[in-house]
């Protein structure tokens, strides 16, 4: 029974670890095999956020190169924008999942709130540039800007909650540790007292027992 329970618990743990990757049915076509490996390796809540941000920044860099080429870049830029949006949605899923499961994302959320506005600035530059016919991909560009704004709003709220929550959790953990230490100390005293009682009882029952053969 115990072994069966352990096997079930182990399977559930694996499924929970995979849940953020499967929450929206992630489109692996939006990521390279190297990027998929990076995500798989980044199990720390904050590190995964930073990895997503690096993927988004890479798409923005490729968009800038495509737009500077002054060629027929509509399809390429639109595809990169859609990839950017898809990655951003995965980022939001990860933040939501970790928030729901008390994952400490404070470092990652601070990175997001630092880098996100910079990425928004680049997207808005694309939108306002006189050298670009933004109508060719205006819908995707609008969605990318709206998505990142939504992500930043959520990150701001999540960070505010976690900054209050985790010091309290740390304080609670410290209190529990002190209580456990106190209980262990008391248990040692009881064990010592019980040993003395047993020894006295043994001597009383065996008065001729001098400990010698």
List keywords for this structure.
213 residues, mainly alpha, 81% helix, single chain, 6 helices, rod-shaped
Fraction of residues in helices?
over 70%
Question: Which oligomeric state applies?
Answer: single chain
| Number of H/I helices | 6
How confident is the prediction overall: mean pLDDT?
79
- Count of individual beta strands: 0
pLDDT below 50 for ≥5 consecutive residues: which ranges? Answer: 1-26
Radius of gyration: 29 Å
Percent in strands? under 5%
What is the end-to-end distance? 49 Å
Output the helix-strand order: HHHHHH
What does the largest sheet look like?
none
Shape call: rod-shaped
The chain-level structural class is mainly alpha
Structure description:
This protein is an all-alpha fold and 213 residues long. It is 81% helix and 0% strand. The protein contains six helices and no strands. The protein has helices at residues 2-22, 33-41, 45-68, 74-100, 106-128, 138-205. It is rod-shaped.
Set out the fold topology.
Layout (H helix, E strand, L loop, with lengths): L1 H21 L10 H9 L3 H24 L5 H27 L5 H23 L9 H68 L8
Helix pairs in contact: 3-4, 3-5, 4-6, 5-6
Task: Give a concise summary.
It contains six helices and no strands. It has 213 residues and is mostly helical.
